[in-house]
Amino acid sequence: MILVADSGSTKTSWIALARNGQHIFQTETQGLNPGVFTKETLYERVMGSKDLAHNREKVEKIFFYGAGCGTELGKKVLAEVFKTIFTKADIHVHEDTLAAAKALQSDDPAIICILGTGSNCSYYDGEVLHQKVISLGYIIMDDASGNYYGRQLLRDYYYNKMPADLAAKFASEYDLNAETIVRNLYKEENPNTYLAELGKFIILNKDNAYGQKVILDGLRSFAENHILQFEESKEIPVSFVGSIAHFLKDEIKIVMKEYGLKLGKIVRHPILSVAEYHIKHL
């Protein structure tokens, strides 16, 4: 059995394949970002899946693509956790942007962007990923991600910069008590996921001047700080993967045009395409 996984900080999608390429099962666990979670939490999240736990001795190979796996330390941490669970498996851990590149099903060069709970951007030359910006995590980076928009909403709400009617709606849908916010940000696990959950509000209420400004400002920041770092960005397509990219595709088109960039594909769920890639290479 071969496992293929695509992981962000919020969730991980898994597909189990037989050697003939047949799908055995598909499941989800919580996110497995080694830059955010302890080894104990990572272990518990994998073992929380009955499908994975019951079949762990049958797994021969794992191809894991995840947020937080762009460093050697992140790869090592996850590989060690997987080795304690899937004791007979040959384990391959890669950064999530490589899954995005494989999901596009093309060997042509492209700028590959991820916009989900977090964000990332790489240049794919058709074989190898190249990165200009090392991510320092959700607190100061992750432009245009779910957690970025959640952070912007909280700031605008507390600085009284959000329109009154929208602020009232925001407060009616979320617990915006200061103590609750501080606890979730500084005491509870997954503060980036908490912020991303708040960030959904701007997507659901984007058809007004305030919503458009917040969204477009985030995408412009992402373009300037990430995409335009690559001199190739003006010459090749810029493709996007992730739920935020999917729901903001119209706004992405606007920003791409503003910066003279060529929009490639926008893929919401890359896991099926990544599995197809590995089926072809079994």
| CATH architecture group name of the domain at 2-100 and 270-280 | 2-Layer Sandwich
Q: What is the β-strand count? A: 10
- SSE order, as H and E? EEEHHEHEHEEEHHHHHEHHEH
| Mean pLDDT score | 92
Gyration radius, rounded: 19 Å
Unreliable residue stretches:
none
In words, what does this structure look like?
With 282 residues, the protein is an alpha/beta fold. It has helices at 39-47, 50-54, 72-85, 96-103, 146-158, 164-173, 178-186, 191-204, 209-225, 243-247, 249-258, 271-280, and strands spanning 2-7, 11-17, 23-30, 61-66, 90-95, 110-115, 119-124, 129-130, 238-241, 263-267. The strands form 2 sheets. The chain has a 5-stranded mixed beta sheet with strand order 3-2-1-4-5, sandwiched between helices. Helix 4 (96-103) packs across helix 12 (271-280), helix 5 crosses helix 8 (191-204) and helix 9 crosses helix 11 (249-258). The chain is globular, with a radius of gyration of 19 Å.
What is the fold's blueprint, element by element?
Layout (H helix, E strand, L loop, with lengths): L1 E6 L3 E7 L5 E8 L8 H9 L2 H5 L6 E6 L5 H14 L4 E6 H8 L6 E6 L3 E6 L4 E2 L15 H13 L5 H10 L4 H9 L4 H14 L4 H17 L12 E4 L1 H5 L1 H10 L4 E5 L3 H10 L2
Helix pairs in contact: 1-3, 4-12, 5-8, 9-11
At a glance:
The chain is of the alpha/beta class and 282 residues long. The chain has helices at 39-47, 50-54, 72-85, 96-103, 146-158, 164-173, 178-186, 191-204, 209-225, 243-247, 249-258, 271-280, and strands spanning 2-7, 11-17, 23-30, 61-66, 90-95, 110-115, 119-124, 129-130, 238-241, 263-267. The chain has a domain at 2-100 and 270-280: ATPase, nucleotide binding domain (Nucleotidyltransferase, domain 5, 2-Layer Sandwich), CATH 3.30.420.
